[in-house]
Amino acid sequence: MDVYNLHLTEPFITKDGSEIRELLSHRNSAIEQQSLAEARLAPGTATAPHFHRVTEEIYYILSGTGLMVIGDESRQVTDGDAIAIPPGLRHQITNTGEKTLHILCCCAPPYEHDDTVLQ
User: Fold this and answer.
1) DSSP output for 58-109
2) Residue 70 and residue 34: Cα distance in Å, rounded?
3) Which residue of 5, 22, 38, 108 has the smallest Cβ count within 10 Å?
4) pLDDT digits (tens, 9 = 90+) for 41-94
5) CB atoms within 10 A of CB 27
6) Domains of the chain and CATH, by start
């Protein structure tokens, strides 16, 4: 049984500048086709604009507020919002609040640095 606790997971910085705690993926579990991670953005910071060649993502806002940009569209997001990010679309999220923005990120296939293209 693969069970990992967020509070015991070591963070790392992704290619887009996010602080990530990867909870489940092929690197640490029986899960092979997707990954689940928690991302954190400090107030006033943003991920670098980027896209993924093959990976589709779902962002789920756990807490905080932000500005989500996907392609030519932008929208304010807040806790409880789920955001679909298809592969190949440039995207960026900015923390527009006063507290850390916490996001669950689901990636299929699993997140890999090599699939991230900075723009």
Assistant:
1) EEEEEESEEEEEETTEEEEEETT-EEEE-TT--EEEEE-SSS-EEEEEEEES
2) 21
3) 5
4) 999 999 999 999 999 999 999 999 999 999 999 999 999 999 999 999 999 999
5) 10
6) 20-118 (2.60.120.10)
